[in-house]
Design a protein that fits this description.
Elements: E1 2-5, E2 12-15, H1 26-40, H2 51-69, H3 79-84, H4 90-93, H5 100-103, H6 111-132, H7 134-155, H8 165-180, H9 194-211, H10 217-233, H11 241-269, H12 276-284, H13 288-301, H14 306-318, H15 322-335, H16 340-352, H17 356-369, H18 374-386, H19 390-403, H20 408-420, H21 424-437, H22 442-454
């Protein structure tokens, strides 16, 4: 061993005899090697952070916690409770409370709603924060969310709209166009399957939104469209700083102009919503004829305003004018065919007026659109009972029972159809199962007694 002096720290260290290449001590050599490794792999030198996504999730969680602490249901807040905390609602939003377009993005209908939204935001938000940068991410998030709120209040002006899903769909849209146009940072390796994964996410969530009542696909589509446009307009990561700032300024101007113009258009096209509080006041005062006249003016002016047709139909029904009520409900259903409330009100009106042929056709149409909804089979079976087609009714009620075995209504209806068809043994078996499942249901015991009286012993 020979003693040498380190060229970096000037300390003496021992080196093997004959080794002329070592000029630094072991401590300096180790420090230099670690520094070189950090320089070669800057991404691995520290864990990535996502402050924007974390702050957005924290705000949503904080608002939900405050709602629960103030007495709002943890699982199923009412629309009125959501509106009190800033949800979107046409009569308020379109009458000057425009701040609801933003606050509604942080209000949720229960723990499942916020849990699913925050899980999606965490996954999409982290990718957006890395690929777009924090400012562009925030710009796309709020522009998409606000545009989604505007779309929601236009299509469903009398419904309470809330949730971060419009902004989340905006994140999906902005990532699709940003990645497709190859604007991502050059040092990041983008998985080739990212676009297909985003497309799958968008497709399945739009399908789910269309199939579940109460979900506003208008907000989803609005957020998606705005996000896609912002992603297409954002500067590429490789752009120079001056070019990037200029482009970002133009994108900000575009977003502000688009949101302002769309809000004005929604206000102009939905001016009739402003009249609803006055109409509700007339109804509460018992002035139904005046309310009907006002609603007739609105529906003549805006024939696609489904909520106005629906309210008009309810007034006709309260007055016993079923033909006019059915006509109004048919118009409401045509204007908003995805609204299950309108569907079942119309079907009920058909049954009440014994228009069984129309009811059969209508329920069959609903079953084709929603084959897993037991209410449609229950309604179809009830219609067949009115037509005295008991075998067809039994088939429909059996489907309803299979889809909703924990509800007594389909089973009781099935037993009644079996009794009417003279299938007393089958009816007895149906009511026996019903009594076991619901021992305190007097209808089940009464049905069992009737079936046992006629069933062969």
């Amino acid at each position: 061993m020979s003693t040498r002096r380190c060229v970096l720290c000037a300390r003496e260290f021992e080196a093997p005899l004959g080794d002329t290449s070592t000029t630094t001590c072991p401590e300096c050599y180790r420090a230099a090697w670690e520094a070189g490794q950090a320089a070669l792999s800057p991404e691995t030198s520290k864990s990535p952070s996502f402050p924007v996504s974390i702050v957005l999730i924290a705000i949503n969680a904080l608002v939900f916690a405050i709602m629960v602490l103030r007495g709002v249901s943890f699982f199923d807040p009412t629309p009125q409770q959501a509106i009190a905390f800033g949800a979107d609602f046409g009569p308020l939003t379109l009458n000057g409370q425009w701040w609801r377009l933003v606050t509604s993005m942080f209000v949720h209908f229960g723990i499942i709603h916020i849990g699913l939204n925050m899980w999606c935001l965490w996954n999409l938000g982290r990718a957006a924060e890395v690929l777009l940068g924090r400012f562009s991410y925030l710009l796309a998030y709020f522009a998409s969310g606000i545009f989604g709120s505007i779309a929601s209040v236009y299509w469903h002006p009398l419904a309470a709209g809330a949730g971060a899903s419009g902004a989340i769909f905006g994140m999906a849209g902005v990532l699709v166009t940003f990645v497709y146009l190859k604007k991502t940072p050059s040092h990041l390796q983008i998985n080739k399957k990212m676009l297909s994964s985003l497309g799958t996410f968008i497709f399945y969530n739009l399908v789910i939104g269309a199939s579940i009542p109460g979900i506003s696909n208008a907000a989803h589509v609005g957020g998606l469209v705005m996000g896609a446009m912002v992603g297409a307009l954002l500067p590429a990561a490789s752009a120079s700083e001056s070019s990037r700032r200029t482009r970002l300024s133009l994108v900000v101007v575009f977003c502000m102009a688009s949101l302002f113009a769309s809000a004005v258009a929604a206000k102009h096209l939905r001016t009739s919503v402003a009249e609803f509080p006055a109409i509700q006041s007339l109804i509460s005062q018992g002035k139904n004829d005046e309310a009907i006249a006002r609603l007739q003016e609105i529906t003549a002016r805006e024939p696609q305003f489904a909520a106005a047709h629906d309210l008009l139909a309810s007034l006709y029904l309260s007055g016993g004018d079923y033909p006019k009520a059915i006509s109004a409900l048919e118009k409401a259903n045509a204007a908003d065919p995805s609204n299950t409330t309108y569907q079942h009100q119309l079907a009920g009106a058909y049954l009440a007026t014994k228009q069984f042929d129309q009811a059969v056709a209508f329920f069959q149409k609903l079953i084709r659109a929603h084959p897993r909804d037991p209410r449609n089979y229950l309604g179809l079976g009830t219609t067949y009972m009115g037509l005295r087609q008991y075998d067809a009714a039994i088939s429909a009620f059996s489907e309803a029972t299979a889809l909703d075995p924990k509800s007594p209504a389909p089973q009781y209806a099935l037993g009644q159809a079996q009794l009417k068809a003279g299938r007393f043994a089958d009816a007895e078996a149906t009511y026996q199962r019903l009594v076991v499942q619901f021992p305190n249901d007097p209808r089940a015991r009464a049905g069992l007694e009737s079936a046992s009286r006629y069933a062969p012993q």
